[in-house]
Design goal:
- The chain is mainly beta.
- It folds into 4 domains: 60-241; 251-469, no CATH class; 474-546 and 618-645, Sandwich (Immunoglobulin-like), CATH 2.60.40; 552-609.
- It is built from 5 helices and 48 strands.
- It has a 12-stranded parallel beta sheet, with helices on one face.
- Helix 4 packs antiparallel against helix 5 (589-609).
- The termini are far apart.
């Protein structure tokens, strides 16, 4: 049985240090202390520079950088903090000024060191090895939702570690003159990555693996033998999932190149319209020029199976040197490829010598396993070349036009499928690491054609492929506590929490609904800004007023209040009528007096039963609290109970 990547076994292989309960207890205490001390530092409101804020921060802190351009080169210095840009994507720019890497992680940072929502540009290596945009050395930070552009040598350069790189746009990286993104150790010694969007050499030895998820890697340009999109050498078992790799240019090799001591999981990536032009290269490659190259060559990960599944690899182009027999391909697998599993992929295009090219190491090894792929040469041509025999017609492998709905490169998500496409409901459900959702976030295995058994589609999309509309930008409103008990003349405080959802931006105005008499409310502040993408709070102050003789008695007959002067007037008028009547008629005075006393007692009793007191309020209320977005179209309500004691 082919051994698949077992993360727990990897951890067991690398972890040799025994853990003790005392150490865990100390770590928990330190973590709790950090959480308690967590604070937000704002740039430039609190500190004028980003590096100054990092220097001030302690583990657990959040540094929020306001919109603008900051000419800096920053270093996390090992701190488990979050540095994030405020406002919309691209609004907060860190410009490296070609002085050094824009951001550096080389002090053992972990996934708790987070870089988010920033534009990182104009970085350039100054030493070897290094990187232009983000330099990671022996660290595993989280790089999330950034724009990394216009940097030299490589957009992200990783020298050992297991970072999480997710949701970034990495574009317009070019080759400089320093050749900073080059492996200096291991079997990848000398491997260059000049111009690559992402370059990685070396893996973490704690069992954790690098993850590259949901990035767009486009418009990067490399020279010589460097890949242009992603280049992972001796990178362990990285997860490469849900990325879009497009319109990258290289003089010799591919858009995605993974080689050396590796066992990658290449799952559900859209790789299209990348270009390789060898016509001006002095020492051209004979075989390896392609859109995607996977070349495992032994080492620690020799016994683990690389998986290439549910990718769409389409219309990548290749220009050879005239007169030389070169085998440009959409997919190249080489050396120790015998455990490689290639499943549920769509591989198509034109202008290549072959679509799939296999070249083994010496001694020969068994070929990769091809299962349920569509390998179709547009305009004719060779499907399989080298030591890979053509598996078309067996194990679900086909060679037919996938019938894309559109191949328009201007579309955000090209190469979606039509219902009649032969790759719809034509994959293999048993593929390792089968994604639960397609590239657009739609559930996999929709059984579009009504087969007796639901079957996954080939490629990155599941039909129907139209993306679901994004959820509306919104926020939630909550109160803590949800009830107050006050005496007259007292105040109480309630924390109002506003949490943005789906990228809500703007201000939220806070108001109270209709208030009962002698009750007041105010907010500190009255308006809350949610442009930072994180929850914000305000204080609601509820107060009650003491009743004076001319004020409201605070009782109710139905919905009408009885004021003190009105009640006294009724009483005086009633007594006056009794005296006048007694002067005119002596008979029945005792009976009349008894009836008057009984009537006044009933009136006063009714007032008391309705909540009327002469000392203040004695009633329960429900007060509505409203939060209204700046557009005036988004309003949320929460209610607070108020019990007022006399």
């Amino acid at each position: 049985m082919v051994p698949f990547l077992d993360r727990s076994s990897l951890a067991a292989r690398f972890l040799r240090v025994a853990q003790c309960s005392f150490c865990n207890l100390v770590a928990a205490v330190l973590l709790t202390t950090n959480l308690i001390a967590q604070k937000t530092i704002r740039v430039p409101a609190d500190v004028p520079t980003i590096q100054g804020a990092i220097n001030m921060a302690v583990n657990g802190d959040v540094v929020i950088v306001s919109s603008g351009t900051y000419p800096e080169n920053i270093d996390f210095t090992g701190k488990a903090i979050t540095v994030k840009g405020a406002g919309a994507a691209g609004a907060t720019i860190i410009d490296g000024g070609a002085q050094a890497s824009v951001v550096t992680f080389d002090s053992g940072e972990t996934r708790n060191s987070v870089l988010s929502n920033l534009t990182l540009q104009n970085g350039a290596p100054t030493t070897l090895p290094e990187a232009g945009g983000v330099y990671i050395n022996g660290s595993s930070p989280t790089i999330q939702n950034n724009i990394i552009q216009n940097n030299l040598e490589c957009g992200i350069g990783i020298y050992s570690g297991a970072p999480l790189v997710q949701g970034n746009l990495i574009q317009n990286t070019t080759h400089g003159i320093l050749e900073g993104c080059v492996a200096k150790t291991g079997s990848a010694l000398g491997y260059p990555g000049q111009g690559a969007g992402i370059f990685m050499t070396g893996y973490s030895h704690d069992g954790q693996q690098a993850q590259f998820i949901g990035n767009v890697i486009q418009g990067n340009k490399s020279t010589n033998v460097s890949p242009a999109g992603m280049y992972l050498a001796d990178a362990g078992a990285p997860l490469v999932k849900n990325n879009i790799i497009t319109k990258n240019y290289s003089e010799q090799t591919s858009a995605l190149d993974i080689r050396g001591d590796v066992a990658p999981l290449i799952i559900q990536n859209l790789i299209y319209q990348n270009a390789v032009d060898q016509s001006q290269v002095e020492f051209p490659a004979a075989f390896e020029t392609s859109a995607v190259s996977v070349v495992p060559s032994g080492g620690v990960f020799r016994d683990y199976a690389p998986v290439i599944a549910n990718n769409t690899i389409a219309n990548n182009t290749y220009v050879a040197i005239p007169g030389i027999n070169q085998q440009g391909s959409q997919l190249y697998v080489g050396e120790d490829y015998n455990l490689t599993q290639i499943t549920n992929n769509i591989i198509t295009g034109t202008g290549m010598s072959s679509l799939v090219n296999c070249q083994p190491s010496v001694p020969p090894v068994s070929p990769p396993k091809f299962d349920h792929n569509d390998v179709f040469p547009l305009g004719g041509g060779t499907t399989y070349y080298g030591t890979c025999s053509d598996p078309t017609g067996s194990n679900g492998n086909i060679s037919v036009d996938p019938q894309f709905a559109s191949t328009d490169s201007a579309a955000q998500y090209p190469y979606q499928l039509q219902l009649q496409s032969p790759v719809v409901d034509a994959g293999d459900n048993s593929v390792p690491d089968l994604p639960a959702e397609d590239l657009l976030g739609k559930p996999r295995i929709q059984n579009a054609k009504g087969l007796p058994t639901s079957v996954i589609d080939m490629g990155v999309y599941e039909y129907p492929g139209l993306p679901a509309p994004p959820p509306p930008a919104d926020f939630t409103l909550s109160l803590n506590p949800q009830s107050l008990k006050l005496e007259t003349g007292q105040e109480g405080a309630v924390i109002v929490t506003l949490t943005p959802t789906s990228s809500f931006q703007g201000n939220v105005a806070l108001t109270c609904g209709t208030l009962p008499a002698a009750v007041s409310c105010s907010f500190q502040p009255q308006q809350v800004n949610l442009n930072n993408g994180v929850a914000q709070t305000a204080r609601l102050i509820v107060g009650t007023q003491k009743v004076v003789p001319s004020s409201v008695i605070a009782g109710r007959f139905g919905s009408s209040r009885i004021s003190t002067p009105t009640a006294l007037s009724v009483l005086v008028g009633y007594l006056a009528s009794i005296l006048l009547f007694l002067q005119r008629r002596k008979a029945g005075r005792r009976l009349y007096l008894l009836l008057g006393i009984f009537t006044m007692t009933g009136i006063l009793g009714s007032l008391s039963a309705c909540g009327v007191t002469f000392n203040g309020i004695s009633e329960a209320y429900s007060i509505a609290v409203y939060g209204t977005g700046t557009s005036g179209q988004t309003t949320h309500q929460a209610n607070i109970g108020l019990n007022v004691l006399p």
